[in-house]
Target: Patellin-3
Amino acid sequence: MADQVQVGAPPADKVVVVPDVPLAEKPPVAAVAAKEPPPVPESEEEPVKQKHVEGEEALETKISDAVADGDDEEKVPQSGHYKEESTRVADLLENEKKAVEELKVLVREALNKHEFGGFAMPQQQPPPKDDSAKEEPKPKAEAVTETVAETKEESIAQAETGDDEEKVATATVRSDAVEDDGAKTVEAIEDTIVSVSASVQPEQPPEAASKEPSDAKPNVEGKDAETVSNKVLPQEVSIWGIPLLADERSDVILLKFLRARDFKVKEAFTMLQNTLRWRKELGIDELVEQDFGNDLEKVVFMHGFDKEGHPVCYNVYGEFQNKELYQKTFSDEEKRQNFLRWRIQFLEKSVRKLDFSPGGICTIVQINDLKNSPGLTKWELRQATKQALQLLQDNYPEFVARQVFINVPWWYLAVNKMISPFLTQRTRSKFVFAGPSKSAETLFRYIAAEQVPVRYGGLSKDGEFGNTDAVTEITVKPAAKHTVEFPVTEACLLTWEVRVVGWEVNYGAEFVPSGEDSYTIIIQKSKKVGCSEGEVVCDNFKVGEPGKVVLTIHNPTSKKKKLLYRLKTMPASA
Model:
């Protein structure tokens, strides 16, 4: 039975009051009376293009600050001067709109000529032209005389050889080419030609003679006839499930290639060609269906969304400390290539789930956990990582909204210097680094606590609460005490989750009835919770009378602590 003590207000430096909520409605997130000021918004981004030396110096400074586990006043690392641009063509600058249209023209021409992915169709050769067509124009009378003479000679020759169809067509085409002032002469010649042709025509069977003239195709002249004979349907090419030039989603994809090449149209078009060729050679559609097993499911996985709605992908390199897994993945070239194919498959499946409509979410946030990651001696892992980076950068442009590196160890400084030359300035601008002591705080800047896995300081896990149940965050100052109150007006079952990132604080809970003659009920005696103990405390209390549940957090340390909590109520009858 819970201990009982006389009603009294619990001592506290700060009190957080959660207003009562009617049971018939879903309780909103608890309102906090005493809160720390919200985080200062990030400053306006500087232009992406900076001098190479300045970019590296800023990057190294940022890493150094993040890796050092210094005093509590250390600031959370900021993003590397990057802000995601609009995917709507209407929002672009004029020169960028022009680049999009120029790229679409190149793509349309390539589709018409079947030049993408090695599917080029052999083009029909145009019929040979007479050498006379290349000669310089002659006076009108001379041209008419020569045309009539040539027409007569060709017609008689064709009549002698019995080439019936050609002689009539030749006469017709030649006569149409004659100028108006020689029309009468041409008509006379035509009559002669038709008479000669009729005299040498062989007898046709009755079926052919009775055929209706309406079946005959209309006469098409010159270039029009050549165009009709050479007409080929445009090639249909899709990438990530989106047909090129089919709708406005295609513009979003073309924008990715343009931005990856600083809106240089020819370079963007070449990149698109190379990507389509690479996908065909790799057999991307077959690769997506391939079964690689589940050995690497803890190495790379998708979990939740950031505050802007981007899917979040976690890369946990520390899993390769498992020697058996490491050998199974990197021991020879074949296994390393298999790892690359698996990594490409994972990204391809993730990309196909994105929204490519203008204004939609078509990028991913990458979280790279370097805790216990194999060191510089693991040559095989470094090689595979470098190859994967190059492949993904060349063939999946502008799919990363932000790269966050957490639990960064000291040796990563050297690795970063080796990898940086292979990355564009635009890619480096998306990087954020945080040492072990600032990893959770850094994640919370971009991802809500209810979306962050428990292993990284959040509350996302299987259980009573889901990822849609919002979490309240409070900063507990050094050597201070916080209390959080949940008022209740009628009988119900109250459930809550509490977590202090890093713990090393005292936690207690009690129910204080509203009645003057009632007694306080101790739900959880105040006790110190160490960093190695339960990551999340989940408690519940069945309330039988009006009152309030009071949670007390005492931080005896000299560092600030992040307090996370959420609650829900259910009617007592349920």
